[in-house]
Design goal:
Number of helices: 1
CATH class of the largest domain: Mainly Beta
Shape: rod-shaped
Radius of gyration: 41 Å
Strand order of the largest sheet: 1-2-3-4-5-6-7-8-9-10-11-12-13
Number of domains: 3
CATH architecture of the largest domain: Beta Barrel
CATH superfamily of the largest domain: Head decoration protein D
Distance between the termini: 123 Å
C-alpha cells in the first residue's frame, strides 16, 4: 500500500502536535482543523485560517481569516473572467485581468487603454498605455473654461483640490480639436482649489506659454504673459508693470548683445551708472506721400519732412486656427479675430526725397524698406547717431565737415562750422563704404537731431 493511500485511510494523524485530518468522503484535508469545510483548511492556535478551494468553472482561491465567509484577505483565480484577484478587508484591492493589465483599486472596467490602471476612490484614474506613452492620471473634474484637460499627473488631496498644489495635464482647446498641449498648474491658496490657475503650457506646434493660454502670435493683442515660440519668435507682455529686467551683477559690461546671422552688430552696456547704446542710431518709420514703394531710393539718401501724417488702417480679420502638416509641423500660426481699426499715430509724418539745397526741413537719411510688413510700404529713416550718408559724384568731403542737403537726395558741405537748422550730419571719416551706379558714394557720419 502506498504512502498516499495510508494517509487517506487514516482519519486522524498527528505531526509534532498538529493534527492532519483527511476527509476522503468530501475530498478535503485539514491541518489543525478537525472538520475542514474546503479542499484545504489550515488552522493555528491564534485562530487564523488559510482556506483553499479549487474549481474548474468558478474560482480557485486562498482565503485568510476565520472562514470562507468571513475572511480578511483572499487570493483567487476567476476561471470565468480569466483573472487573478486580490482582496483585503473583504474588498477587491487589485486584479490582473485576462489582458495582463494590473488594476489597483479598480475592477479594470474603466475605459483606459493601458497596462497599469490606478484608482483612488472615484477620483483619479490613470494608465501606462500599450504604446509606452507613460503613466497618465485623469480627473473627473478636468474642465476649466474653454479648455478640456485630459490625462496628466496631479498633486492634491481630493476631487475638489486636484490642482490645489500643482499639476501637469494634457490640454485640448474646445475650439480646435486638433490642438493639444501640456499644461502646468499651481495655486495661490493652500486651503482651497478655487484659486487654481494654469501657470504655463507647451502648445503643440507653437511653443511654451507662461501666464497665458493665448495660442496666437497676438502682435496687437492685449493679453499678458510670455510666449516662447519653437521658431524663436517670442512675446513678453505685462499689465501696468515693467516687462523685463536686465541685471548684470559683480561688474560692468554688456547687458544685451544684438546679433545678425551670428555676428554682433550692436549692444547695450553699463558702466557705473551710465547705460550706453552701442553701434546704432535712432530712427523712425515713415512713408512716401502716395504710399508707394520707390525702390530707386537708396541707403543714405537725404529725406525731407512733409505735413501729412502716416495712417495705418487695418481691415477686419477673421479668426483662423493653426494649420499643421501630416507630420504635425506648424504650417501657419493661429490668427485672432479683429475688427476694423486704425493704429494711433501722434508723431510719424510722411517724407520725400529732399529737393531743396540747404533744406531746413531735412528729416534724416533713408535706411531701408520694411520687408517684414506686406500690408504697408513703410520705410525706415535714420535721425540721430551713427550712419552713412550719400555724397554726389564729384563732391569732396573732409573729416569734420558739417553737411546739408544738396537738393538731389545727396548731401554736401554747408560751408561753415556752425550747426544750423539745415545741418543734417557731421562727417567722421572719408572712407567710402559703397559707391552707386550714378557715382554717388557713402561715407560714415554722425546724424544730428533731424
Amino acid at each position: 500500500m502506498s504512502r498516499a493511500r495510508q494517509l487517506a485511510d487514516s482519519a486522524d494523524l498527528s505531526f509534532d502536535g498538529t493534527t492532519l485530518v483527511v476527509d476522503e468522503t468530501n475530498n478535503r484535508v485539514g491541518i489543525g482543523e478537525a472538520s475542514p469545510s474546503v479542499p484545504l483548511e489550515v488552522y493555528d492556535a491564534s485562530n487564523s485560517r488559510i482556506l483553499a478551494s479549487t474549481s474548474n468553472t468558478g474560482a480557485s482561491q486562498f482565503c485568510f481569516g476565520d472562514d470562507a465567509d468571513d475572511y480578511v484577505g483572499r487570493i483567487y483565480y476567476d476561471h470565468n473572467g480569466n483573472s487573478m484577484r486580490f482582496h483585503a478587508s473583504s474588498s477587491e484591492a487589485m486584479r490582473i485581468d485576462s489582458q495582463g493589465v494590473l488594476n489597483i483599486g479598480t475592477d479594470g472596467n474603466a475605459n483606459i487603454n493601458g497596462k497599469l490602471n490606478v484608482t483612488a476612490g472615484n477620483f483619479v484614474k490613470g494608465a501606462l498605455d500599450y504604446s509606452g506613452d507613460g503613466l497618465t492620471i485623469t480627473s473627473e473634474n478636468a474642465t476649466a473654461g474653454d479648455n478640456a484637460y485630459g490625462s496628466g499627473i496631479s498633486f492634491g488631496r481630493n476631487a475638489n483640490d486636484i490642482y490645489r498644489k500643482a499639476g501637469i495635464c494634457l490640454v485640448q482647446t474646445s475650439g480646435d480639436p486638433d490642438f493639444n498641449g501640456l499644461a502646468f498648474f499651481g495655486s495661490n491658496n493652500s486651503s482651497s482649489g478655487a484659486d487654481m490657475f494654469e501657470a504655463g503650457r507647451f502648445n503643440s506646434g507653437t511653443g511654451w506659454l507662461i501666464g497665458t493660454t493665448n495660442n496666437s502670435p497676438g502682435e496687437s493683442s492685449t493679453a499678458t504673459g510670455i510666449r516662447l515660440g519653437y521658431s524663436g519668435r517670442s512675446q513678453f507682455s505685462a499689465d501696468s508693470n515693467s516687462i523685463v529686467f536686465f541685471n548684470r551683477t559683480s561688474n560692468d559690461g554688456t547687458l544685451v548683445d544684438f546679433r545678425q546671422n551670428g555676428t554682433s552688430e550692436g549692444s547695450i552696456s553699463v558702466s557705473g551708472t551710465t547705460v550706453s547704446y552701442n553701434g546704432g542710431h535712432l530712427s523712425r518709420w515713415s512713408r512716401l506721400a502716395d504710399d508707394s514703394k520707390d525702390t530707386s531710393i537708396v541707403k543714405g539718401t537725404v529725406m525731407t519732412n512733409l505735413d501729412e501724417m502716416v495712417v495705418w488702417s487695418h481691415d477686419a480679420v477673421e479668426a483662423q486656427d493653426a494649420v499643421y502638416d501630416e507630420d504635425g509641423n506648424l504650417v501657419s500660426e493661429a490668427v485672432e479675430a479683429k475688427e476694423t481699426y486704425t493704429e494711433d499715430n501722434e508723431q510719424l509724418n510722411k517724407m520725400a526725397v529732399s529737393s531743396v539745397e540747404g533744406d531746413p526741413n531735412v528729416a534724416g537719411v533713408f535706411v531701408n524698406w520694411d520687408e517684414d510688413d506686406d500690408e504697408f510700404n513703410d520705410m525706415n529713416v535714420a535721425m540721430t547717431g551713427d550712419m552713412v550718408i550719400r555724397i554726389a559724384s564729384g563732391t569732396t568731403v573732409a573729416r569734420g565737415d558739417l553737411l546739408m542737403s544738396a537738393g538731389d537726395g545727396t548731401a554736401k558741405p554747408q560751408g561753415d562750422d556752425i550747426v544750423r537748422s539745415k545741418t543734417i550730419a557731421k562727417v567722421i571719416s572719408t572712407h567710402v563704404s559703397h559707391t552707386y551706379d550714378d557715382g554717388s558714394y557713402l561715407v560714415p557720419c554722425v546724424l544730428m537731431a533731424c
